[in-house]
Amino acid sequence: MSAFQTYLVGGAVRDRLLGLPVQDRDWVVVGASPQDLLAAGYLPVGKDFPVFLHPDTREEVALARTERKTAAGYHGFAFHAAPDVTLEQDLARRDLTINAMAEDAQGAVIDPYQGQRDLRDCVLRHVSPAFAEDPVRILRLARFAARFSHFTVAPETVALMRAMVDAGEVDALVPERVWQELSRGLMEKKPSRMFEVLRDAHALHKLLPEVDALFGVPQPEAHHPEIDTGVHLLMVLDQCAATSAPLTVRYACLCHDLGKGTTRKEELPRHIAHEARSEKLAAQVSARWKVPTDCRELAGLVAREHTNVHQSEGFGAEARLRLLERCDAWRRPERFAELLWACECDAHGRLGFEQRAYPQRERLLANLRATLAVDLAAVSAEAIARGAQGPAIGAAVKAARLGALRSFTDDRHA
């Protein structure tokens, strides 16, 4: 059996050098064949290229490999894994210099593509022209920009990404991979950076034309001192991150104002009835990228109802009851709470409004609790005793809930 060497590679090396917790460890074996690893007790798990489980740690290790572009998209690659593939060749196929470093068993860093320099200078830079062969890398880079928000993108990398878009590489992306990267980027600490980078790379208008259309669209300055609708959206997304909102809320916020990009010029800067247009466009985006049901449903709800939630301070009991009914709040209280979370992020995602009180969230939650406290069984039994049937019983339940809202006072939710 040939002697082979194992190296820690990629994100684990990068994060250790940055002083960050190491989440996942990726290993590469150099100087071995599949037969060598099998003989050493490694278990094969890879389908497309040789990946094995270490016999003791059960961590995944991959044979050093090179790759060659064979067709459009990210599936179009042929891999070559053999004992003569060097560590430098394996690292060369990686996306960014900060991800193209390795560490040997003694802890020495192997850095053939100046990743440590770019870590020091806070630069996201592609390793080689091979970056252009995989369009997923545009999304990955944008996601890294959202994670390392103080990093800039090297000008030559921006130029390369634009050339990739012009060449139609982004058109070959499949929904599952796009959603995977978008959802991960939304969950980073500064998701606005992902969309800034995608826009700078000219990829946003290909992937999310509904979002791209928001930039440059004005809003009334009294309510939106930042004016630009696209800027407002980015501020809302960063409010989501600041409050550790779940993915459902972040995706809903991404889609909440899409209708403003289709407002007729003569109606600007107002956006009459943008909510219905936003709901329709949110469904369009969700279908294109096969967004999970929980994210898709909340996005539609927030798009349709966010203005009503904002204005609910002036609602009477009847209007608040209708809002709860439209939101299916009694059957889905958790989703209603997420709607209010998204609306609060929307309200705070405005220049100078970041710290303003948003009483609508707690008051509507208290309204929901007040109506949930109604003893539906007792109300129904009483209605039946009076001879009510079918719709009449439902009307009695509605009247009881309305009564709860009418008697509601602010000090009851304390």
TrEMBL record:
GO molecular function: CCA tRNA nucleotidyltransferase activity; hydrolase activity
Pfam families the record matches: HD (PF01966), PolyA_pol (PF01743), PolyA_pol_RNAbd (PF12627)
Keywords attached to this entry: ATP-binding, Hydrolase, Magnesium, Metal-binding, Multifunctional enzyme, Nickel, Nucleotide-binding, Nucleotidyltransferase, RNA repair, RNA-binding, Transferase, tRNA processing
EC number: 2.7.7.72, 3.1.3.-, 3.1.4.-
InterPro entries named in the record: CCA_bact, HD_domain, NT_sf, PolA_pol_head_dom, PolyA_RNA-bd, tRNA_CCA-adding_enzyme
Domain HD: 229-330
Residues holding CTP: 11, 14, 94, 140, 143
Cofactor(s) this protein requires: Mg(2+); Ni(2+)
Recorded catalytic activity of this chain's protein: a tRNA precursor + 2 CTP + ATP = a tRNA with a 3' CCA end + 3 diphosphate; a tRNA with a 3' CCA end + 2 CTP + ATP = a tRNA with a 3' CCACCA end + 3 diphosphate
Binding positions (Mg(2+)): 24, 26
Signal sequence, renumbered to the chain: none
Comment on bound cofactor: Magnesium is required for nucleotidyltransferase activity.
Residues where ATP binds: 11, 14, 94, 140, 143
Subunit details: Monomer. Can also form homodimers and oligomers.
Its biological purpose: Catalyzes the addition and repair of the essential 3'-terminal CCA sequence in tRNAs without using a nucleic acid template. Adds these three nucleotides in the order of C, C, and A to the tRNA nucleotide-73, using CTP and ATP as substrates and producing inorganic pyrophosphate. tRNA 3'-terminal CCA addition is required both for tRNA processing and repair. Also involved in tRNA surveillance by mediating tandem CCA addition to generate a CCACCA at the 3' terminus of unstable tRNAs. While stable tRNAs receive only 3'-terminal CCA, unstable tRNAs are marked with CCACCA and rapidly degraded.
Family (UniProt): Belongs to the tRNA nucleotidyltransferase/poly(A) polymerase family. Bacterial CCA-adding enzyme type 1 subfamily.
Free-text note on domains in this protein's UniProt record: Comprises two domains: an N-terminal domain containing the nucleotidyltransferase activity and a C-terminal HD domain associated with both phosphodiesterase and phosphatase activities.
Note: A single active site specifically recognizes both ATP and CTP and is responsible for their addition.
The protein, known as: Multifunctional CCA protein
